[in-house]
Amino acid sequence: MIARSRTFVVQKDPPRHSSTVRYHQRPVDFNSQFTTAGDQRVTWERPENELLVSLARVSLTGAKSERVRELLSNNLDWDYLIATADHHNVLPLVYRQLVAQATSVSADALSQLKNLNQENTRQSLLLTGELCKVLDLLAAHDVPAIPFKGPTLGVLAYGDVGLRQFSDLDILVRKQDVLNVKDLLLAEGFKPTQRLTNSQEAALLRFDCAYNFTSKKNAVFDVHWDFAAPHFSFPVDVSRSWSCLQTVTIGGKQFSTLRAEDLLLVLCFHGFTHSWERLGWVCDVAGLIDRRRDFDWPLVLDKATRHGCRRILWLGIVLASELLEASVPTDVLQTAQSDPMVNRIIENVQERLFAPEPVSSGMLNEALVQLRMRERGRDKLMSGFRLATAPRSYDWMFLTLPRWLFFLYYPLRPLRLAGKYGARLLGSSNLVDSG
User: Fold this and answer.
1) Which residue in 125, 317, 332, 380 is deepest, having the highest Cβ count within 10 Å?
2) What are phi and psi of 374, to 5 degrees?
3) Sequence-distant (≥ 6) Cβ neighbours of residue 342 within 8 angstroms
4) Of the ranges 131-135, 234-238, 271-275, 372-376, the best mean pLDDT one
């Protein structure tokens, strides 16, 4: 599901343990000089955070294994580590690596991780079963559907559905089939996650990208017809994705899903719109890159350049390389790291990744970041226009209009924003003038 992006700031949370290693975290400053490519960007506030990042991968190198052993020698807060691993959706990966280090891990912590990992495996199998049922249902009624993320990404990025921690399922259908899919799901006992009037449903189909349903077993399905809502201005042509698919096998059944190059762009955009606030999303990108030795980098770079989302791609692959040592080609990585704006955003993401309390910096900051991440002037202009005028769910849920009056949402949104933020900006200006 694509949601409103959020930007967080770091808050101090002193370590509650003694440690043989000094950990700290620098305050975020967007106006400061960014670190040059290749330098150490992050100094970890606490060893549990560094350990978590070191463990969040399918396999460890010799040097990384040695570092893990050093970190395990600290007086670790296991409750914090386990809770943080769960929050970042990397519990299966952490458990897999700690089992190999069992003699250095608290017995209680290992037991707790084992139980949580088993629960994740059960949940993954349940969701995979629900996905199979829905795809069979749609196929029986000649409705094409493409599963992406969820269990298919588990296989593509990790080689095992159980190594990816996920809580919902995403399928892509053609927009003209959405209401047919809705009727089929309702007949099977699914329920929409939101009760919508006919006008609100029409607004959802026009101004959003997914219709969400819950099965009788509480499996959440996001039925997409696009990868992002219009206000994000994500320019990838969804229609072309249908002609460029790959096959993945799960439990002896074959599924068609997005090819790796298209999926990488989707994952990077998803992470960007959510401020990369989950380490698990970085793991998805790193795993997808590492498992595809035949990855067509010229193709994905050409697509990102043509669509004006090169910085969004670079942000994802640099995070995957610097945090998780993803196998990004040297020339690609160096080009990505040479972009000043990418460097600045990466430092901010890494600094706040383990911030104890998320604090939103507001819609204006969100808009500025989105504009700065677009390379071309025309894309900045279009993004700014859509951010200001394209209705979001709050607009059409707050004020329900009949379909023939939908055009009014476009001027109503900037008027509402002007009323909301105008007084604040005027107040700030007065403070500056009086100073």
Assistant:
1) 317
2) -95, 135
3) 311, 314, 315, 318, 336
4) 131-135
What is the pLDDT averaged over residues 414-434? 60
CA distance 173 to 160: 25
Cα gap 130→157, rounded to integer Å: 21
- Domains of the chain, with CATH numbers? 47-359 (3.30.460.40)
Q: How far is CA 414 from CA 23, 103, 144, in A?
A: 45, 60, 38
| Phi, psi for 376 (deg, rounded to 5) | -100, 145
385 pLDDT band, cuts 50/70/90, is confident
Confirm if 52 and 90 have CB atoms less than 8 A apart: yes
User: Tokens 């096998």 sit at which residue?
Assistant: 249
Question: Which conformational region is residue 108 in: left (phi greater than 0), alpha (psi within -120 to 50 degrees), or beta?
Answer: alpha
Place of tokens 């704006």: 341
Q: Residues 295-304: what's their mean pLDDT?
A: 93
pLDDT, residue 245, reads: 93
Q: 3-class SS at 214?
A: strand
